[in-house]
Amino acid sequence: MQSQSQHGAIRFACSVRGEHGAGLISHGVPFRLVAESRALLDLMKKHAPHGSVPSDRLPADARRFALCRAQRKSGYELFANEKLLENAATLDHALILLGGHMMIYVAEHAPEYVFLHAGVVAWEHRALLLPGASHAGKSTLVAELVRAGATYYSDEFALLDSEGRVHPFTRDIRMRRPGAPDQVPLPLKQLDGRAGTGPLRVSMVVFAEFAEHARWAPEAVTPGRAVLELLLHSTPVQRTPGRTLATLSATMRHARAWRSQRGEATVAARSLLAALATAGRPV
Q1: What span, in angstroms and rounded, lies between the C-alpha atoms of 201 and 183?
Q2: Is the pLDDT of residue 7 over 70?
Q3: CA-to-CA distance for 257 and 234, rounded, in angstroms?
Q4: pLDDT band at 81, cuts 50/70/90?
Q5: Lateral strand order in the sheet of 20-26
Q6: Does residue 80 contact residue 63 with C-beta atoms inside 8 Å?
Q7: What is the pLDDT of residue 133?
Q8: What torsion, rounded to 10 degrees, do the Cα atoms 222, 206, 276, 139 define?
Q9: What is the C-alpha separation between 275 and 128, in angstroms, rounded?
């Protein structure tokens, strides 16, 4: 339970009375959710990062995320500790923003993993990383690979440990609707897919950004160049650059890297699974 003084800043910022709170831990990162009603708190918990678990024992300095109705205008306000992070016109939008801020916080502070923006699948116990920024087509390619029989590990973050192994982050795949910025969940069962259950060595890293009418023509990327490009997609690099670099270097110790723009996901998926099966070059 938080003390009156610990809640005070949130009360002042949100003008919330009768607060409800919940402690959570995600991938070793503790944080607290604060809301003005039990119903709102339950909605906030549904948007917590994949893998979050309840905890009644949080450190005094655990980050507090508060969501409340704006007092002087319509909509909602999102706070982290005393700082206003976002204003949102609707509750749905506020919850999406909250989920994003919680995920970034966990990715930046996870003590045992480097969070890398990448899709991940496995084939015959060989892991494939697909690094890329938002809108690069990661989720579409991951979904196509899973349809073709690959084991699903993640569509957004690769969780890498200090030995360079990748761990499952098996939330529902999030697909963007044509012409819309928001995402809708695609449950794994709709793809007849299966989820990964344990860490794997990374065998292949492929930088494969979508471009309409692009020709699939993979070219080799040196391990050193691959590490430099992976740094650009690593969430904690500014906080822990040394640890991040060491983790990515360990990841590339057992992997080969390739690059190509891609058009239709089916062509790239067939090529990548064939290459994983033989530990060869994708063509």
Answers
A1: 30
A2: no
A3: 17
A4: very high
A5: 53-54, 20-26, 29-35, 63-69, 76-80, 83-88
A6: yes
A7: 83
A8: 170
A9: 10
- Please answer whether residues 61 and 29 qualify as being in contact, where contact means their C-beta atoms are separated by less than 8 angstroms: no
Per-residue confidence band for 226, with pLDDT thresholds at 50, 70 and 90: very high
Rounded Cα–Cα distance for residues 82 and 79 (Å): 6
Domain 114-278 of CATH type 3.40.630.30: no
**What is the chain's mean pLDDT, rounded?**
90
Three-class secondary structure of residue 122 per DSSP: strand
**What are the φ/ψ torsions at residue 114 (nearest 5 degrees)?**
-100, 120
Burial 103-142 (b: 16+ CB within 10 A, else e): bebbbebbeebbbbbbbbbbbeebbbbbbbeeebbbbbbb
Question: Counting Cβ atoms within 10 Å, is residue 4 exposed (0-12), middle (13-18) or buried (19+)?
Answer: exposed
Start-end of CATH 3.40.50.300 domains in the chain = 114-278
Q: For residue 180, what are the CA distances in angstroms to 91, 183, 223?
A: 18, 8, 36
Q: Report phi then psi at 232, rounded to 5.
A: -65, -20
| Predicted pLDDT at 182 | 67
pLDDT tens figures, 246-278: 999 999 999 999 999 999 999 999 999 999 999
* 5 CB neighbour count, 10 Å cutoff: 7
For 92-144, write each residue's pLDDT tens digit. Answer: 999 999 999 999 999 999 999 999 999 999 999 999 999 998 778 899 999 99
Q: In whole angstroms, what is the distance from residue 215 CA to residue 262 CA? A: 6
Residues 6+ away with beta carbon under 8 Å from 186: 139, 143, 172, 173, 174, 175
